[in-house]
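User: Need the bound-state model for zinc ion:
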Amino acid sequence: MRDEKALETLTQLLGVGGFEKEVRQWIEKEAAPYADEMATDAMGNLIVLKKGTKGPSAKKLMFIAHMDEIGFMVKKIEEDGRLRVCNMGWNWAGSAYNSRVRFRNGIHGVVGCVGWIEDAKNDVGKLFIDIGAISKKDAEKYVKLGDVCGYWGPYIELTNDRICAKTLDDRIGCYQLLMALKENDGTYPNDIYYVFGVQEELGCRGSGPAAERIRPDIGIAVDVTPAHDYPCDLEGSNCVDGGIGIKICDPSVVSDEGVVEAMIECCEKNAIPYQREVIDKGGTDSSSMNVSCMGVKTGGIVVVTRYPHCQSAVASKKDIEAGVDLITAFSKYQFE
Ligand SMILES: [Zn+2]
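Assistant: Bound-state model below.
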């Protein structure tokens, strides 16, 4: 990998939707030496511009990876010190159950359930967080209503160059954009906007406003996508180690045909392994970019992950690196 330590560090940061500051500050520091211009908008999107060689006639390419992760927000503190929570993004009650979480002030907790997890029927309202507090008064010393927590757990290596970590969705994308920015030497024809977005998990809220500001010719969401190559509740053709995913369609967007063709050309010319991605559940920031401005041509570059939206997502280093290769190749593409 180009810089595995950077990916590991990114996965260990905490940035639940609307509270991405810790992630943004780290990326800002890393990106600053390579940026021509850098700005954070009112929502918290970090926009990094690396200019191309064509001046005012350059095409504007916007890549966006979201900094936010799924998590929970405290909505009630019970008399016995348990924290009742609501979803910040889509958590499966079953995979959240018995997971460890961390609050922004460093307090840790474990996710419990008021009865059989099977009876929770995926209702996060049936879950609670145990921070070790012995009463409501005690718990209030550590947390207050509106505090957010995300999953906690180390970054580990599995066999066959596969990794497991929390928040691979979408710190993989943040890592890929950062690596692509670092290798952009300013000789590309296109102006490249590397955007580290907010609140994707809350309904793709950050990417539309970021696109309005940039007014890109093409917008690309750089994200993860669920795998279909193991027994699970989804069906499709996405494979871990199948190469970088080129988004064709999901329920929220249809990629621009020309963008897909250009991506495939980039992969074939540069021997980058790729797979065509079609999913019938989920979506990415492509959707809101697509319908922003007067309409934007969009596409997606996605890494196939197993066990998404839990503390132990799994992905392949080879797919991740192929994604950086594709972002770089596409950034240099000569558009008509
Ligand atoms: Zn995502």
